[in-house]
Task: structure prediction
Amino acid sequence: MIPYGRQSLDQADIDAVLGVLQSDWLTQGPAIEAFEQAMAAACEADHGVAVCNATAALHIACLAAGLGPGDRLWTTPNTFLASANCGRYCGADVDFVDIDPRTWNLDVEVLALKLQAAEASGTLPKVVIAVAFSGQSCDMRRLAELAERYAFTLIEDASHAVGAAYAGRPVGCGEFAAMTVFSFHPVKIITSAEGGMVMTNRPELAEHLRRLRSHGMTRDPAQMVGDSHGPWYYQQVELGFNYRMTDLQAALGRSQLNKLQGFVQRRRYLVARYQRLLQDLPLTLPQAQPDAQSAWHLYVVRLQLQRIKHSHREVFEGLRKAGIGVNLHYIPVHLQPYYRELGFAEGDFPEAEDYYAQAISLPMYPELSETQQDYVVQQLQHWIQGR
Result:
């Protein structure tokens, strides 16, 4: 089976993890800060706050933004569940903004119109989460302008976009978003097995994020109520969580970071090759967002169903039977039973629904060989042309 994505590990990664196993610190040790500092340097950001996964990162980012009951979070329906669920964890209402039919990212012009209507009705969002789908940022400059005008906190869910760039700077630099979230799941650009990180340039947010990831606890006398009892003393000053990353994960992530540029270059090479090999087939191929340089976590094509002989499901299942582990990113979040119970229904976000009816994620990872890629193209051609 050729998977749609997988980790790429080498001996240096193994040695990094073994080094931690042979050390005095398996968790809450120096590898965490070393990974945070290395990510911050790579992103040209001031602060990185490592956590156990990107879902936890989204949750505490929303809390640090002050999101709570009675507030609203907006995001795209074309994303993984966590981009919306993080708002529900905070007790907020969640709504969606349909996608751009060209880039499959959140449509900024649709957002602008929705914000105008929300301002008139007094229902503006407190947080907007812009998802860098497949590794490509949204129109972050325009989003930042809207965030300033309508006073919402802009968070970029860049779980797909470690190593990507926007407007000539690394994603995560903090020029446009108040906070940026990364994922280090095994199928992502780099991995720490499980893990996530929030990047920010605001020291007060970084301090709050670090406290939230560790039970809402502090050892800083300046943050305490009353006097410290001694050097052993700590206080819980708010409700937090155990969202800490281990030193094992951090060591793996930092080692993987050394290979980031090579991973991204290989992905971009494979994408260029897919674009060339698939250009004459009845497919809609991914398009670039102006100013965005994707990291290409995913390579998604859309079937032009009116021009092919098989259904979407038949093509998908045919590729699976041929040993190609295609996937589908994503089922629109608003169509999940949980969100239907909140009042969402089919037809609410037609662009995302049309996309879902046509999309297939093809294999994309650095160790994918050209021979394997040729086989993927051959089998896809077979199923969409009925040969």
About this structure: The domain at 260-385 is CATH 3.90.1150.10 (Aspartate Aminotransferase, domain 1). Residues 260-278 form the longest helix (19 residues). The first strand starts at residue 2 and ends at 3.
